[in-house]
Amino acid sequence: MTIERLELLSDDVLANLSKKIGIRVKQDWDRSKMIDSIIEVMEEDRIEKESLLNLAVSIESKKYSVTINEELDLAYDVDEEMVLPDRYNENMLHFLLRDNSWGFIMWDIKDSLNLKYQNQLEDVNYILRIIELDEAEYSTDAIVDFFDIGIKKGETSRYVSLPHEESFYCVEFVLLSDSKEIIIDRSRIVKTTRDHINYVLDDNAKLKKIVELSGYSNCDIIEESRKSLNRILPMDSMDEEE
């Protein structure tokens, strides 16, 4: 949609269009401000779609560039020819255990959603909320304690120290302002422990040797039916071997 076509629309239509694409129109905005904001958001959306399309076309062209009569060049430098994006512009939050005392958090938030909340809230702060629970199911009654970590806009990962063993933890990604708190996403729950492991015959037949080679002890993941990136096999304590 061009500026000329937007100029032909009424103020009410412009306001509805702004709301539809995630722009919060302020009372002191005139027509030109609304039109500029709409053009800016639509241009960002166009660039994002073109970037993803170009990446897909590039991958497909390289995938089929070697014909039956061509020899694959083993010296082909993938890093130089095909660069994967730093992020995929989607809402996600993953919480993984590095060991029994440290967790690794990685996250992202859609640009359109981020822009929407920036327009709605003043002085937005980005927060990682580390929540300790006394059971494997999330509820407000199960919360034992929590602490917040402030993060900068543009950050996508962080290591965090987990204070207690034999505890359940999850992470929330929160947008916080003076007047409102918005939970964007919540991770699955993990459990930290150090002192034991329940060996299951056959399933963990090789686990004891893996623990001996790993150099650190046990950490459990709360089992779910679906697969997840942050599933970590439980590991035994080295103290039992000494």
Automatic annotation (TrEMBL):
It comes from the Bacteria. InterPro entries: DUF4912. It holds the Pfam family DUF4912. This is DUF4912 domain-containing protein.
